[in-house]
Amino acid sequence: MKLAIMQPYFFPYIGYLQLINAVDEFVIYDDVTFIKQGYINKNNILGNNKPQAFTLELRGASSNSLINEIDVGNNSKKILKTIKQNYSKAPFFKDVMPLIEDIFNYPEKNLARYVGSSLQKISQYLQINTIFHYSSELEKKCELKAQDKVINICENLNASHYINAIGGQELYCKDTFEKNNIKLNFIKTNLQPYKQFEHEFIPYLSIIDVMMFNDINTINQYLQNYELI
Predict the structure, then answer these.
(1) I need a labelling partner for 179 at 20 to 30 A (CA). Which of 8, 61, 117, 200 fits?
(2) Looking at the DSSP assignment, which residues form a beta bridge with residue 134?
(3) Nearest to 113 by CA among 221, 1, 10, 229
(4) How confident is the model at residue 139, as a pLDDT?
């Protein structure tokens, strides 16, 4: 069984969705420390032919808080307005905007559940059938740290193959995983340019941008455009 474990990212770039699509089961790592500089509550969309940041307001966020100890704030309507203004003329706006509104209107305000729900709904829209878990609900040795905790989760879920984002190369050792009978790979995204109105392509934007300019079949092709290293 192929497994990935990642902190929940809000409307992440397509590489994150490639990772979800590449595995059988995906663990939303919600009982780890919140990173303010990360992409848990923010990303970039297209605005005036350049990346435009959007940030989900948070309550109770600090460098000492776990992700599942934080709540989302009340700026969802403002972000939705910005998305509508920037993408109202995009070819798949009418198909995608109801999904985005549904995600932002999710009643649960816990950050981990809010973002976790968004990842599951986006996956469903893109016809990804991966099974999701929350790490806080899994049996594991909580005293373990970093790589050892990941290996413990893999063992408890009977995973034989662990796939991580490319940045994980600095965190995880293939030899250590192999000693525990787990294959380790990292996913390297091959970005596929696509038409964004009449402007030069801007990469690494939120999956919102990808969905606004491409149909589901095309996005499914993009989801397969990666290498395992």
Answers:
(1) 8
(2) 28
(3) 10
(4) 86
What phi-psi label fits residue 158: left (phi over 0), alpha (psi between -120 and 50 degrees) or beta? left
Contact 68, 136 (CB under 8 A): yes
Q: Domain segments of the chain: what residues?
A: 2-228
Tokens of 126: 């893109």
Nearest to 84 by CA among 96, 67, 70: 96
Which one, of 27, 227, 30, 31, lies nearest residue 130 by Cα? 27
Residue 163 to residues 26, 83, 159: CA-CA distances in angstroms?
10, 32, 10
* C-beta of residue 92 within 8 angstroms of C-beta of residue 214: yes
Distance CA 63, CA 71 (A): 14
pLDDT in tens, 5-59: 999 999 999 999 999 999 999 999 999 999 888 899 999 999 999 999 999 999 9
Does an H or E element contain 165, and which? Answer: strand 161-165
Give the integer Cα–Cα distance in Å for 213 and 197.
8
How far is 46 from 212, CA to CA, in rounded Å? 10
How do 71-72 and 58-59 pair as beta strands? antiparallel
Of 156, 159, 155, 177, nearest to 168 by C-alpha is 177
pLDDT in tens, 179-201: 999 999 999 999 999 999 998 99
- Within a 13 Å sphere around the CA of 118, how many CA atoms are in the beta-carbon half? 27
Evaluate whether 225 touches 192 at the Cβ level (below 8 Å).
yes
